Amino acid sequence: MSFEITGELHPPDACHCSMCRKQSGHYWASTDIPRAALTVRGAEHLTWFRSSAKVRRGFCSTCGSFLFWDPIERDSIAVAMGALDGQTGIRLGMHIHVAGKGDYYDIADGLPQKER
Q1: Which of 13, 27, 43, 110 has minimal Cβ neighbours within 10 Å of its Cβ?
Q2: How many CB atoms lie within 10 A of CB 61?
Q3: How many other CB atoms are found less than 10 A from the CB of residue 15?
Q4: Helices in the chain by DSSP H: which ranges?
Q5: SS (H, E, C) 79-104
Q6: Which phi and psi (to 5°) does residue 108 adopt?
Q7: Residue 43 structural domain
Q8: Is residue 57 part of a domain?
Q9: Inside any domain, residue 71
Q10: Which family does it belong to (predicted)?
Q11: CATH number for 26
């Protein structure tokens, strides 16, 4: 499976909620893009997990990579920064859900932090 994004990437955020930390092994950095900007090749290898009534998470069924965070009622989808090939030309913009961050690390980069 592979995917392509058309258009400009927005600064990603780093989510520190317990669910993202457990699924990614640390915090999860992603950028939101319009759904129409995402093309998935080999979509038969994309598996969706409904993590709540409002969100599903997309995984590669071949390698297990956590690739997408999909808020079902929005016109955008979050794409894992770690899944992008090459240089992106963007930098992390903020930290979210920092109230749920792990106690084993500090956030000391000076970026904005949202509790939820």
Answers
A1: 110
A2: 14
A3: 23
A4: 18-24
A5: EEHHHCCCCCCCCCCEEECHHHCCCC
A6: -130, 30
A7: 2-100
A8: yes
A9: yes
A10: Belongs to the Gfa family.
A11: 3.90.1590.10
